[in-house]
Design goal:
Elements lengths: L4 H20 L4 H7 L4 H4 L18 H13 L5 H7 L4 H12 L11
C-alpha cells in the first residue's frame, strides 16, 4: 500500500504558503485612508465629491477601483491630474486606496423589485 503522507505534506506546505502570501498582499484600509488625503481635494473625504465634474468613487467596487488606478498609472486611461497624483504610488498603495474607497458609503446600490 502506498502512503500519501509525502503528497499531503507538500500540499499542506503549498497551502500554507498561499495563505501567508495572501496575508502579505492584504489591503490596509487605514493606510488607504492616509493615502487618500490628497484625493479629497477633488473626490471628497469619503470619495463622494460634491462637484459634478469629479467622479464619485466612494462605495465603488474594489476591483474596479484598482483596475482604474492601474490604468491611470500605466497610461491606459488618460488624465494628467490622475497620472501625476499616483505616479509615485506602489502597487500596495493602489490596493490600499481601492480598499479604502470601496468601504465608503456611496451612491451605488441594488434595486430589488
Amino acid at each position: 500500500m502506498t502512503s500519501h503522507r509525502p503528497i499531503l505534506s507538500v500540499f499542506a506546505a503549498g497551502l500554507a504558503l498561499l495563505l501567508v502570501a495572501g496575508v502579505a498582499a492584504a489591503q490596509n484600509v487605514q493606510r488607504g485612508a492616509e493615502l487618500s488625503k490628497p484625493c479629497a481635494a477633488c473626490h471628497g473625504a469619503d470619495g463622494n465629491s460634491a462637484a459634478p465634474n469629479f467622479p464619485r468613487i466612494g462605495g465603488q467596487h474594489e476591483d474596479y477601483l484598482l483596475h482604474s488606478l492601474r490604468a491611470y498609472r500605466n497610461g491606459g486611461r488618460k488624465n494628467a491630474i490622475m497620472a501625476s497624483q499616483i505616479a509615485n504610488l506602489s502597487e500596495q498603495d493602489l490596493r490600499d486606496l481601492a480598499a479604502f474607497y470601496a468601504r465608503q458609503k456611496g451612491p451605488l446600490g441594488v434595486v430589488r423589485h
